[in-house]
Amino acid sequence: MFSLLHGLWNHVFSKTEFRVLILGVDKAGKTTLLEKLKSIYLKGEGLPHDRIGPTVGLNIGRIEDANVKLVFWDLGGQPGLRTIWEKYYDEAHAIVYVIDSASASTFEDAKSALEKVLRHEDLQEAPLLVFANKQDLPASVTEEELDRHLHLKEFDERPYMFVAGSAYDGEGEPWHSGKAAAL
Ligand SMILES: Nc1nc2c(ncn2[C@@H]2O[C@H](COP(=O)(O)OP(=O)(O)OP(=O)(O)O)[C@@H](O)[C@H]2O)c(=O)[nH]1
Ligand SMILES: [Mg+2]
């Protein structure tokens, strides 16, 4: 009887947990974004950006509200570390892909790394949020320019959202979203 009640309690009151991968090439701003999210949603937590160094392993962020538990996995984006990414794919539910939109010389690398992520069989069901970071910098490119480089619409049929913003100030605006093939 107790185990039945215990199971029912867990079923009714347990929160759904979603695991979100934060990926992107090195220096895109992944860890800065994660720490900003923590400082917004977990009052008092979250490192200031001048205390963040390149990620070698994994940074984890847990954010909960009344109904949902989000677990963020932020991985290092240096070329030699990207082979680690796929170890997390089969347990991930969604992808946030961060791009330094003020660094045109990295767009090609960012595009091919993203294509490889999206081709992986374990991530076929995962929705994608592309975060065009560093919009506070004058060199940041427009939506059209970034799209021209990334060809997001040609990727596949998964639901995606394209958001521009700055991990420094936590501001952002949606550019567009939809199902890639339907656009
Ligand atoms: N101006 C500006 N700089 C940013 C922003 N976000 C991150 N940066 C800077 O970009 C650099 C790289 O940021 P990180 O968060 O370490 O980048 P990362 O993607 O985690 O890099 P790896 O861990 O090496 O993969 C740092 O100097 C940050 O301060 C932003 O929104 N605006
Ligand atoms: Mg990092």
TrEMBL record:
SMART domains: ARF, RAB, SAR. It comes from Aegilops tauschii subsp. strangulata (Goatgrass). It holds the Pfam family Arf. Keywords: ER-Golgi transport, GTP-binding, Lipoprotein, Magnesium, Metal-binding, Myristate, Nucleotide-binding, Transport. InterPro entries: P-loop_NTPase, Small_GTP-bd, Small_GTPase_ARF, Small_GTPase_ARF/SAR. This is ADP-ribosylation factor-related protein 1. Transmembrane segments: none annotated. GO terms for molecular function: GTP binding; GTPase activity; metal ion binding. It comes from the Eukaryota. GTP binds at residues 24-31, 77, 133-136. Mg(2+) binds at residues 31, 55. GO terms for biological process: Golgi to plasma membrane protein transport; intracellular protein transport; protein localization to Golgi apparatus. Belongs to the small GTPase superfamily. Arf family. PROSITE patterns: ARF, RAB. GO terms for cellular component: Golgi apparatus.
